[in-house]
Amino acid sequence: MSRVLPAGRRLRWMTAVVVPALLSPLAGCSSSSTAVEACMAKQADSVSSTDLTGTYAGEGDAKGTTITLTSTDGRPGGTVTVHRWPTGDWYKSELGAEFNGSGTWSVRSGTGSDAHARVRLSLTEPRTFLNGDTLDKLSIAKGAGQTYLYEDDDPDVCPKFRLKMTTSRH
């Protein structure tokens, strides 16, 4: 024979049992830094152009993609060359899903709400792209002798579009 709880006790029981069960998956969610660290390295707060110069090969959704960053006479940033780079929606009909190109790059250290360092690309070949026309901002992860550039699009999972440094040029 089952016993029916009064409405007030039933609500307290549901709150005590159901709410913690619903919230427990949230404890497993990782912060952006933890998700990145789990599959690559620690997100970089600051980094110099010299630390980033080299060739990177794609992993995950970036498999087959390469990017080469070269620095110009010790100045911040330099030139960039990309192969099989993802084309933004605006130019897909003209260039296809990916393209080979070049341009310049710069690095910005993390400040305030944008707490992590990023590489900003300004691609001018095969044509000049406006901000957001293609992937033009990459976050940086660095540690244990490894450097990654990646698209930081979902803070709860390992970045799908990521490139690992294969050849350092400094």
Q: Mind telling me the C-alpha Rg?
A: 22 Å
Structural class: alpha+beta
Strand content: 35-45%
Q: How helix-rich are the residues, as a percent range?
A: 10-25%
Question: How would the global form be characterised?
Answer: globular
Q: Count helical runs.
A: 4
Distance between the termini: 78 Å
Helix-strand sequence: HHHEEEHEEEEE
**Low-pLDDT residue intervals, each spanning 5 or more residues:** 17-32
Query: Please, what is the average pLDDT?
Result: 79
Strand order of the largest sheet: 1-2-3-4-5-6-7-8
The major pleated sheet works out as:
8 strands, antiparallel, barrel
Q: Tell me how many strands there are.
A: 8
Characterise the protein shown here.
The chain is of the alpha+beta class and 170 residues long. It is 22% helix and 38% strand. The model is unreliable at 17-32 (pLDDT under 50). The radius of gyration is 22 Å and the shape is globular. The chain has an eight-stranded antiparallel beta barrel with strand order 1-2-3-4-5-6-7-8. 26% of the residues are buried. It is built from four helices and eight strands; from the N terminus they run αααβββαβββββ.
List the helices and strands and how they pair.
Layout: H1 7-27, H2 32-39, H3 49-52, E1 54-60, E2 66-72, E3 75-86, H4 92-95, E4 98-108, E5 118-125, E6 137-143, E7 146-150, E8 161-168
Antiparallel strand pairs: 1-2, 1-8, 2-3, 3-4, 4-5, 5-6, 6-7, 7-8
